[in-house]
Amino acid sequence: MSKAKLSANNQIMIPEAIRDKLQLTPGDVLDFLENEHGEIILKKANRMEALFSVLDEINEEASNEGIKEQDLLDEWEKVRRERSYGEE
């Protein structure tokens, strides 16, 4: 069993053995899941699931601000073109 201490900033250092087992690297997203016994399970998030989760949050915030999904998609495409081709 590994242990970690919660810092004053509510952060924990994941023990090296756990990082190695989960093949964690800086910037990885982690899921904290609760099982039927109330125990918390730490799992490395699937990158696509993490991306979709972030996109869902952006879409929800935009919707709350009255921004339509198509407007977000249009803006995303504009930024993508600018970064890829230097177009405006």
Automatic annotation (TrEMBL):
UniProt-recorded Gene Ontology molecular function terms: DNA binding
Pfam families the UniProt entry points to: MazE_antitoxin
Gene3D superfamilies the record matches: 2.10.260.10
SMART domains attached to this UniProt entry: SpoVT_AbrB (SM00966)
Record InterPro entries: SpoVT-AbrB_dom (IPR007159), SpoVT-AbrB_sf (IPR037914)
Domain of life: Bacteria
Residues in SpoVT-AbrB domain copies: 4-50
Record's protein name: AbrB family transcriptional regulator
Species for this entry: Shimazuella alba
